[in-house]
Amino acid sequence: MTQPPYIYLASRSPRRRELLRQIGVTFEVILLREAGQRRIDVDETPRTGESAEEYVNRVSREKALAALGVVHARRLAAHTVLAADTCVVCDEVILGKPADAADAARMLRMLAGRSHRVLTAIVVAQGDSVVSRTSVSTVWFRALNDDEIRRYVATGEPNDKAGAYAIQGRAAAFITRIEGSYSGIMGLPLAETAELLRNHGIVVP
Hints:
Blueprint (H helix, E strand, L loop, with lengths): L6 E3 L4 H9 L4 E3 L22 H22 L6 E11 L2 E3 L5 H11 L3 E12 L2 E13 L4 H9 L20 E5 L2 H5 L3 H10 L6
Parallel strand pairs: 1-2, 1-3
Antiparallel strand pairs: 3-4, 3-5, 5-6, 6-7
Helix pairs in contact: 3-4
């Protein structure tokens, strides 16, 4: 008999899966939307007056609660749910995933030659318990010219990435300094994640 998963991961992100495997956590992915025609489960549009901290905490919490609903609806075993959300903030503007290549280039021009913040909120939910942590990091980009931005956007790497870049990918060549959690910038701060999981009885090596 196979061992059941320790947790459910409410995320499609391959980076979050990779990071959980890195610390030895066994998980099963819970997909909130399995068919494109279904309505969205979580509205990831920033609300008027909502700060970046409020935004990532709201979205990650709603993802966790939506996943709990899926677990209940499918009558799955009641394992702990982990959800997360990441955003990039520059000049107090929340930069989510780019809509297209032009939007990605716009974001990268905003980030070039300066610093910005990356916020990742994680939520662990089990029964009536919903607990969160937020990781805040600062990233410095070197100056980028239009040709560098064009070539980077053409790789497709900015697609589906908050702020239109991946620190673990080719964009590493743009980054001169970071302050905070490298794994948090990738999308899942491992120190905070391990702490929350241990507090919920999940063994983390």
